[in-house]
Fold:
Amino acid sequence: MADQSVSHAHDQDEAKLELDYEQTLATWRMLVDLRFRLLAFVPAIAGVLVVLAGRSPSAASALVAVLGLTALFGIIMYDLRNSQFHDAAIHRAKEIEKQLTLSRLSDKGTGGGGLMNERPRDRYRLAGVEVWHDRALFIVYAASASGLASVGTLGVLTELAMPGGWRLLCVTAVAAAVFMAVLVSLHQYDRHVVQPKPVPPPPAP
Structure:
């Protein structure tokens, strides 16, 4: 009778873990989908604003650029916060996989079995740049901010009647400076993010 009670309790615990795992993966998929939507949405909208405002540079186009940069800043903050939830979901899924003792089916990952524990940790390079998700997003955000800033600068310099050659030089310098400033700021932020860590199991009653 005691053995049956223990077995029943074990089955209940495993069912809870399986449900928790399903919900955690669903949350992770939702956050990944949101990231891909932002990856498509942000540069598309920024590109449209750059094209429309850049056709006839003026004080109005500079205002549009400022509004676009403000909205972009809000989107970046939103995505950075969601990235914390994304990392927490991965951590939780990895720990549940360990408790479920899922089979290890590849030589990738951190040693345990399961989708999250077997995520490849290899670091490859593309054109000399290390490939990882956050850096790709940072580059997209930096390029979008650079484009908007260049349009705003062009509008201001046009209103000031600056000669074409100097105008082009200033716009190029601003675009490069904004790109690097945003990229460096995002990388500095990422270095200060504390990743979730496993907690010790609760003491036995």
